[in-house]
Amino acid sequence: MAINGPVHSNVGLDAHGFNNLGDQHWNLSVPGLYEHAIRNGEGEVAAGGALVVLTGQHTGRSASDKFIVKNAASENEVSWGKVNVPMDPAHFAALKARMLAYYQGRDAYVQDLFGGADPELRVKVRVVTEQAWHSLFAQQLLIVPPAEARRDFEPDFTIIQAPGFFADPALDGSRSQTVIALDFEQRLVLIGGTSYAGEIKKSVFSILNFLLPPKDVLPMHCSVNVGDGGDSAVFFGLSGTGKTTLSADPLRTLVGDDEHGWGNNGVFNFEGGCYAKVIRLSAEAEPEIHATTGRFGTVLENVVMDPATRMLDLDDARHTENTRAAYPLDFIPNASETGHAGHPRNVVMLTADAFGVLPPISKLTPEQAMYHFLSGYTAKVAGTEKGLGNEPQATFSACYGAPFMPRHPTVYGRLLASKIEQHGADCWLVNTGWSGGAYGVGERMSIRHTRALLNAALDGTLAKVTFRRDENFGVLVPESCPGVPSEVLNPRETWSDKDAYDAQARDLVGRFQKNFETFEDFVDGPVKDAGPRLAA
Prior knowledge:
The protein is α/β, with parallel strands linked by helices. α1 (30-39) packs antiparallel against α3 (132-141) and α9 (366-375) runs antiparallel to α10.
């Protein structure tokens, strides 16, 4: 069958075991992929030009269906357990053989891409998909090499994705018909039974999280922006905490919105695009991100569109709360052209506290920063992962990205501590969650207030105000901030029922303490003592 595309590598798909394929479509352009996606019936074009697709059953990551092959490359390096579930090499071999057989007679879309803006540290990734829109997604999210680099492109890792392939637990060792399996020895990822494109990008993230720590580079689930004076800021946070939104600041240059490394030369983006949540996205509050939903080249996952007018309804969550927009970084007006920035002056840890207990911003000591980095607290609300209901779930995800961290969390924690100490970064805990009561009673924190607090932290304004020590969490809370009502800064004062606040605070402190028992044997005394304590 035909091999199409502007440029294809001398290292073909036969090197990965493919044979008897239909047509091969290599490194197609954005317009070319649009044509294929429309012709294949994979999606529709919205008013403004975005490609709207539905992912079906899976509208978020299938965290329980992710495996790492246990072999010589991983056995003594991976932190095995509930997050990093082992797969037997024989099962992986069977899965690979059946997936390659599935591809026989089918077209394949291929993108040769880079993961990582640092030429010395990036990984060369080949993404093979059965649908054009997933190929477009991969191209928009990762870094596109120059054409000459694609002619002899030999991938470090290959991702084979087949939504129409269903795993068999008896044959493949999977939990269900959905599977995401990573083999560090074969340098291969197999994704089957899910159309959710986020599995592709997070597979690349998992790869870099494994490869970089031995090189003294900290991989981070974070966004990064930088001011005119070169003062970069890192924003840690899980999905739904505001990483993408808060880093898209018109007054600062966006380096990236989700995945970065912190090495000897500063910070660098792993990606070339953004993957933003867009449910109830406001043009007034988030104009840069909102504008991307009306642009040709953006992929919109599970966004509702009027079939007649093709107008979007970003407020409609009939498919999922986890609606997404995937777009290249240069769709943001003030995005970095290099994907690089200097060493951070500020490290911000974001949480969406659904209990309404944490202050909207607080300053952390280095020991508190370590404690909260290892804790990785937030509360997930409706839909960033398959299986979540409508009620919030308190979640502690080590390093603000435990599902993507193959190594033990303290490996990343020690790297962060070393970088903070070496470069003297200030650390902040920012709550973008609820105020005035828990979820269902209180209201979501005003993004206008959050931005004002962050700006004051990053430009040094908060260094000039008076702080008080929170009775339960021991963190320093500013008593004033320009543009923010003083009562907002003290969460207890926003609750009408003060006894209810105290009870909720005691509950959350207990959750922190229970969770941190996992790490007590791996950290020293000052870090253990930096955690929350019940008020006297």
